[in-house]
Amino acid sequence: VIRSGLPKAEIRTRCKAHALQWAAEIDGGxxxxxxxxxxxxxxxxxxxxxxxxxxxxxxxxATGYPAPTPKRGVMDVIREAQAREAAx
Length: 88
Prior knowledge:
The protein is mostly helical and 88 residues long. 62% of the residues lie in helices and 0% in strands. It is elongated, with a radius of gyration of 20 Å.
């Protein structure tokens, strides 16, 4: 399991899927420079992490979109830090 929380086999499968998509587009007549990203590793990492993050958020039933996350203010963060220090 990597930092994404996915097993290596799942990450490999997702990367292969992207590579096959690029190959299909190139076979379809597109130029490789128009299909394959310049920084392949960065693209794959950000895409996979985006999918993982999107999949992990709860979906709001009424709209079908992810539920809004509550905003935390600076004072909330300070109070939480003070509570942790007091508990230690």
